[in-house]
């Protein structure tokens, strides 16, 4: 999230208005959330969510003026073992029904570097909404080489969640309460 606010202000004058954020649609085929947790001290277990829907209102001149809103089906979770996935969908954890979603809606963005920011937002999962902070990085923005130069952006982010905060704390603390989350998203300028 290039921090060019000062340079832009000097170039066009402090009294001029900045461009409004532009809508970027998330590319579900190149966006995912990967999570990991410690299993009884023996191993690190991984899983992922896919099937994103959402948009990023991206202001390249003033990244703090950007926002993001995404959702994904709980049942899109993939762990590589069907019995584990079935257990996660049971009443021990999510009690998931078709149509249940994990959602994130940003409430603020603090630019921390040339291409980094802290994105604060409301994460809703399993009927619980909590404020979380994502450590985000803009990987690049440019015309997509396979989409006739359509403006494209890529972001990575990380955070740590506590399962017990969202009512999915079965077996904690033996199975770690803390879950490491890695997010990677591509999005294209909406046409």
Low-confidence stretches: 1-16
The CATH architecture term is Beta Barrel
Look at the helices and sheets and give the structural class. mainly beta
Rounded Rg: 18 Å
**Largest sheet features:** 8 strands, antiparallel, barrel
CATH superfamily: Lipid/polyisoprenoid-binding, YceI-like
Gross morphology: globular
Q: Remind me, CATH topology?
A: Lipocalin
End-to-end Cα distance: 22 Å
Strand content: over 45%
The helix content is: under 10%
CATH class descriptor: Mainly Beta
Number of domains: 1
List the secondary-structure elements in sequence, H or E.
Answer: HEEEEEHEEEEE
Q: Total helix count?
A: 2
Tally of strands: 10
Mean pLDDT comes to 91
Strands of the widest sheet, in order across it, are 1-4-5-6-7-8-9-10
Characterise this structure:
- The chain is mainly beta and 191 residues long.
- It has one domain: Lipid/polyisoprenoid-binding, YceI-like (Lipocalin, Beta Barrel), CATH 2.40.128.
- Helix content is 8%, strand content 49%.
- It contains two helices and ten strands; from the N terminus they run H-E-E-E-E-E-H-E-E-E-E-E.
- It has helices spanning 5-12, 82-89, and strands at 22-26, 32-39, 43-49, 53-58, 67-73, 101-111, 116-125, 128-143, 151-162, 178-189.
- The model is unreliable at 1-16 (pLDDT under 50).
